[in-house]
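Hey team,

Sharing the Prepilin type IV endopeptidase peptidase domain-containing protein run so nobody has to redo it. Sequence (380 residues) first:
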Amino acid sequence: MLLINFFFLPAIFFIGIITIYEDIKTAKIRRKWIVLGLLWSISGYFLLYLLGTLRLIDYGGINYSYIKDVFINTFISIGIAYLLWKSGIWAAGDAKLFIVYTLLIPLDYYSKSYLPYFPSFALLLNIFIPVFLFIIIIALFKLIDIAAYIFKNRNQKKGVLILAKETMVKIVAKIRGSWQNLLGILIGYSAIFLGLQILMSRLHLRPIWIIMLMLIAFRPISEGIKKSRGLLLLTGIILVGYFGYKVIYHQGILELIPIFKSLICLILLFGILKAILNLYIKYTQVDKIDIYNLRPKMLLTDEVIKGFQKEFRGFKDALGTIYPDGLSESQTELIKNIYIEKGYKTIEVYKTFPFALWMFFGVILTLWLKQNVLHIFKQY
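Structure output:
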């Protein structure tokens, strides 16, 4: 194990530091560091295999089980990284960097919370949990600022009440105008949750897999359900049939209570997290820039995109898909031309988020703890 550490740990720290620097400075992770990490890991394992075959080192024989575990872990990591990219959770560079880290981190560093087939799940948790905690803390401070503002301006109570009333009216109008979206979200949650529960009982998976797969699968599946009324209806019928079957052929309505409780808790949890995330993004991650300064790789805010879609017919088809990596050159030019033609001078974009920094922080946590941070919380 010392020899594996000797090969891989220097590469982890070098690639981690250089990608953090470039991500902060240029908001991108260059391909050459990804290639370097992949070549380093492949070369390292090949060299260890060669040394073991020539008996220049002796680990009691070549550990084919370890090699198999590395392959399976890498294969699953590639799938997870792709799905997270496709879901818009991180950019392509971040996805590739995660794959590099899963290859470079020896499996021994997951020993205290080793998850069969996908031990790098510990790394995934160690990346995202600190990010979520950071976002929650910043969002709470922002809420405190808002509360302090309201308290200081309590003499303008009438104005605050009017603002609250207008906000509630907008929320109600949004709910009325997007019942299909809300129904799609509810059915999407239910379908994914129940499907994963069935898989968990059949495949004897741990409950943590439900949370992970819910996070990954929810957005693409719910979006598909919301866009197609036929699929929405079909999924709804399947769910009603499932619940009906449970009531008639099993223990009746009482058996469904734990399922509904878990489902409601999960929906509330995801809803709260989304509200906190939206608050954080709205007040800390939005920049208003001159339209002439719009560049490829920048990300437009959701409000800007929705405004485009309402104002210009066929805009969505003309623009195409905006990936988490940001605007393409053609998309940038299209938006610039529209804005300049309409006389708009500024546009709102999201600030870049140096995710490579948080990813490396997750790597350090994994190397230090040899487990995911949830296991630390469980001990207390």
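The first strand starts at residue 286 and ends at 290.

Ping me if you want the raw files.
A.
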